[in-house]
Each structure stands twice: as C-alpha cells, then as structure tokens.
Specification:
The protein is mostly helical. Helix content is 60%, strand content 0%. It has one domain. It has five helices and no strands.
Length: 110
Amino acid sequence: MQIKSETWLAATNQRWKVVVAVCGGLATLVSFAWFVSSLDDDGALGRTLAAFAGSGSFTVAWTLSAVRCPSCGHRPVWRLLRTERADAWVARLLTLERCPSCGWSDTQFR
Ligand SMILES: [Zn+2]
C-alpha cells in the first residue's frame, strides 16, 4: 500500500499512523487464528483469547482515534466510517486532500 505524498495524511505527517493500524489489523488476524487453533487446549485458551481481544481492542481504538486534524482536532476515521460505503472509507481516508471537518490542507501555508 502506498499513500500518495500530496494527500492530507502526508501533509500532516500521519501516514505512519495508518501503517500502525494495518499492522494492528494483521496482528489481530494472526491472534484470532492462534485463538481458534487453541480452542481444544484449555491451558492456552486464556492467553490466546487475551491476545486476540487485546490486539483487536488496540487496533479499533487506534484506528478511530490516532488520525487527527492538526488544525481543528477532528478525527476523520469515524466520520468516514459513518458516511462512506464499507468498501470505500479506507480509500477515501488515504486520498483525502483536506480535513473533512474544517477544510485544512497544507496548501494554505505554502
Ligand atoms: Zn480540521
């Protein structure tokens, strides 16, 4: 996945936050598979469930809260989840050119 350099995410130096969210999603998938594979092992079940719940909770919380507008503090992910189609909100986030709340973009300061 490559995020274009002229996007709002790039202008606000927040591309790394999307990378952390993707890594969290992958960790959640791996921990879910680990949890499912341990269903017959009572000794490991608690640990694998904790890993799955912990990584999933972290990833959801991070994804919803990490990306913020430096101008108004708006967190656009929740807005995009509510207003875009389920298969389109990630692409929309990655291609934002302005803050969807206040319209801030780095071109205002060039
Ligand atoms: Zn804003």
